[in-house]
Amino acid sequence: MGIADIYKRLNPQTSEYLVYIVKDLNEQQKDLLASELNELTDKELYSAISILTRLSSKQISSIIHKHELGGPLLIMGDSVANKRMILAHRIAYLIVVRGIKPEEILGITFTNQAAGYIIDMVSSLLPDKVLIDMNIGTFHSTAMRILNEESFGNVNLQKLGYKKTPFYRVIIAHERILLLKRSIKEAGFDEKETPLTTAMEEISKAKINLLPPEEYEKKATEKMSKN
User: Fold this and answer.
1) CA pair distance 143, 206, nearest whole angstrom
2) Count of domains in the chain?
């Protein structure tokens, strides 16, 4: 079944929308879209076309992309607003067309504003869907949610490298500096010879490279022995 079969199920106005949606897609993208839309109920079909209406072919190709066919999707060069819009429409498309449950989707942003924008846009695209369990947030809020879910009963905290811990909290900026000063002193280093900025940069590098403390200590010891 192809695109032609979908037109038979649509009213004239929605058919015009579909013409615009598919006009600049390549054959593989048209086949993918046709195979997915033909599996939908009439209500889902109209919702899917509504999600894709008034978008460019480039935006549509990103939204309907399937990693099993084309590998991971990376969008570069577009404005921040356009990336947010594509992400919101893709989430809506995954829910309506591919049957992904909202709680099984994870969207991570850099700012609360971006997260709020995406949540609001998905909600406007899918007014009939209950999206309360959709996981959209910043890196920090997502990490906090995971810790909150896992720490009650201490389930799987060991996977994060921690022993069984009944309580945790996020430290604020000046507390981080105080803890770092104390750690430098307890380790026997001279604070004057170990600038806090340097220590914080090293910690950030280790986090970015996912280096556990033991491995970082080994690398640091090797580096010091060479000097």
Assistant:
1) 18
2) 2
Q: Which domain holds residue 205?
A: 173-226
CB atoms closer than 10 angstroms to residue 89: 22
pLDDT tens-digit map of 129-161: 888 888 999 988 888 887 777 655 455 556 656
Quick one: 24 and 121 in the same domain? yes
Nearest-angstrom CA–CA distance, 26 and 28: 6
Global pTM reads: 0.74
Whether residue 114 lies inside any domain: the answer is yes
DSSP tag of 172: P
Contact predicate 97/36, CB 8 Å? yes
Q: Are residues 65 and 110 in the same domain?
A: yes
Could you tell me the end-to-end alpha-carbon distance of the chain, in angstroms, rounded to an integer? 69
Residue 36, both tokens: 């997915």
Provide the CATH number for the domain around residue 114. 3.40.50.300
Gap between the Cα atoms of 115 and 117, Å rounded: 5
- Measured CA distances, 212 to 34, 198, 203, 208 (Å): 47, 18, 11, 11
- Phi/psi of residue 137, nearest 5 degrees: -175, 180
pLDDT of amino acid 143 = 84
* Single-letter residue type at 6: I
